[in-house]
Amino acid sequence: MAVGLGGCDLRDKIPLTPKDALRLADPFGAATREKQASDEDGETFVFIVESKREGSWSGADMAIRRQHKTMCPDGQRPNILERSPKLLSDSAAARNVSHPAGTTYRLVIHCPAQPYEELDFEPGISRRDAEMLIQSELMGGEWREGRRAYAASLPVSEWTRKYDWMNQMIGLEVSLQLRMCSGGVIVRRVLIGNYAQGHQPRQVSDKDDRTEFVFGLLTDCVDGLNPDAFVTQETSP
Fold this sequence. Notes:
Low-confidence stretches: 1-5, 230-237
Radius of gyration: 25 Å
Strand content: 25-35%
Structural class: alpha+beta
Helix content: 10-25%
Mean pLDDT: 83
Order of helices and strands: HEEHEHEEHEHEE
Number of helices: 5
Number of domains: 2
Oligomer: single chain
Number of strands: 8
């Protein structure tokens, strides 16, 4: 038996989820990413996204990043090879030039292969031993005043990509060292330690897709340590 709805479509009464509302309000459609080439120097990717309304390259870039989280799969800093429509400059004014609805934006990027020095751990190594190994590799048996070898395990997931983490940690460690050094900081070496596939030191749960790697950084103070950084100020009772 057919049941009539009196001309009312039930779908009209189902409230939109916040995700659905954002999708409908987005002036751009789905952004695709396809690998165009791969060699020892890295990988080349092509992004394509079409505007549903009047838009610009600024909005297209935001749509790509929002949908893919990062342009390069591991968070490397991409080199822009080509844009269509052509972008005359990288200025804010050029990026905000309007294009009509239905414009197809095509972006070609190159992601460099392993921008930092990397080594692979033997299967079964513990997190502590892995971090100590990276510290030992960084120091190379040489120590001097003002030298710091830092190593820490960092998680990787859909939201925290490998090289995004690296760039953030380098900036953080250098900023911390600047307070300790008299004449600035020199980054001597950056080293990544990769756990063997299937031999991650820890998984939060069986469904957890996060992995870990060890970040290592070797820095030197340019003119030695800043003595004022180690003075503890006493307060009167």
